[in-house]
Amino acid sequence: MRVSRRAEELKESTTLAITERAKGMRRAGADVLAFAAGEPDFDTPECIKLAAIEALRAGLTKYAPIPGDEETRHTIARKLATENGIPDITGDHVVISTGAKHSIYLAMQCLIDQPRADDSPHEVLIPVPAWLSYAPVAQLAGARVVEIPTTASSGFRMTPEQLDRALSPRSRLLVLNSPCNPCGTMYRPDDLRALASVILRAARERCPDLCILSDEIYERIVYGPDPHFSIGSIPAIAERVITINGMSKAFAMTGWRIGYLAGSGSFGLVLAEAVAKLQGQMTSNITSFLYPAIRAALRDGAADSARMCAAFALRASLIHERLGRIPGLRTVRPVGAFYAFPDVSSCFGMVSPRGKLLANADDFAAALLDEHAVAAIPGTDFGGCGSNHMRFSFACSESQIERGMDRLGEFVSSLR
Hints:
Layout lengths: L4 H5 L4 H14 L5 E2 L11 H12 L12 H13 L11 E4 L2 H12 L11 E6 L5 H7 L3 E6 L10 H7 L4 E7 L11 H17 L5 E5 L25 E6 L12 E4 L2 H16 L10 H10 L1 H23 L14 E2 L20 H12 L1 E2 L1 E2 L11 E4 L4 H17 L2
Parallel strand pairs: 1-10, 3-4, 3-5, 5-6, 6-7
Antiparallel strand pairs: 2-8, 7-8, 9-12, 11-12
Helix pairs in contact: 3-10, 4-10, 5-6, 5-9, 7-8, 11-13
C-alpha cells in the first residue's frame, strides 16, 4: 500500500518546516529568535474581532452561499473598483475562499488543463525568486513551470523583454506578486504597464488563452517611493487578470484564513462560476460569522492597517541598515511586504565553529539555527538566484531585529 505519486512528490513547505523546528527548540528551552514565518506580530484590530463576535452571538452560524454572502462579495467588489481601479467588476465576479493560497489553488485548477497524451502541458510562467507555493500548486494542476530569472541588480523585477522571450503558444498563466515575497521589492506602475503591453501583443499573436494571476496580498504594506498598482486596472488586459487578495497580511488576520479572487468582465464571471463550482466540492463556504468581519476590515480597518505599515517601514530601514553592516552580505532595500533577502553566498565554502560546512543556503540556515538560535528561511526553494539568499521576515519587534542581527553578525564573523 502507498499514497499517490502526487502526494509523494509534493515538497514540504520549507517555511513551515523551519517554523515548526524553531518552535520545538523553544519548547525545549532555547532562546530562539524567529525570522521565518510571514505573519504580522500585531493582533487583529478590535473592530474586526467585535464584528465576528457580534455575528456569532446573533446566530450567524449556518451554511452560506459557496462563493460568500452577497453583501460581502459586493463590499469586496467595491473595494477593488474604487481602491484598485479594476473595471467592470461586481460581487458576482468575487469568490471568497479559505485563504489567498486556496484562492490561488482554485484559480490554477480552473485555468490549467491536465495534459493529454497527444498534447504538451500548459505553461505557468513565474518570475523567480518567488513564493515557494506557486510552482507546486501549478504542477498539481498539470502545468509545466517556466521560471523567469531575476536578480538583485534589477530589484528582482522581470523585464518586458524577458517575458516576451519566455512566452509560447502553450503559455496559460503569468504569476505576478507585487509587493513580493520573498524579495521585499515591487513592480512600479510603469513596469506593470510595460508588461501588460507584452501580454496584450502576445495574446493577439500567439497566446490566445494567456492570463495573469496577480497576487496582491501585500498591497497595503508599501513604504517605498512608488505606490501599489493593480495590473488588473489596465482596461486593455483587465479581463485577462485574476486578482488574488485576502485579509491575512494587511489586517493581521493570518489565522482567520480568509482570501478572495476576482476577475473582470465576461470572463471574470465565467471564472468565478467555475471556481465556486470547484470550491463546492472542496470546502464550500468559509466560516459564516466571518463575513461581517471582512466588511468591518474593509470599511473601518484602514487606520489600523496604516499603523502596522508604518511600523513595518521603520523595521525595514532598521534591518536593511543592520544587514549592511555585516561584511560579505549584500541586500536590496525592502520597499514592500516585510522581508529582507540578503545574498549570503560569500559565506559558501566556509565552516562554522561546530564544523558545519556551508555549501549552500540550506546549510547556512541550519547552522544559524543550531549554533546561534536564529530561524530564517533559505532561499533555495524560491527558485532562481534565491539559492544564494536567505529570507528574514521582519514581522517582529525592533528589539528582536537588533538581537537577531547581532547574532547573525557574530555567526558570519565566526566562519572560517
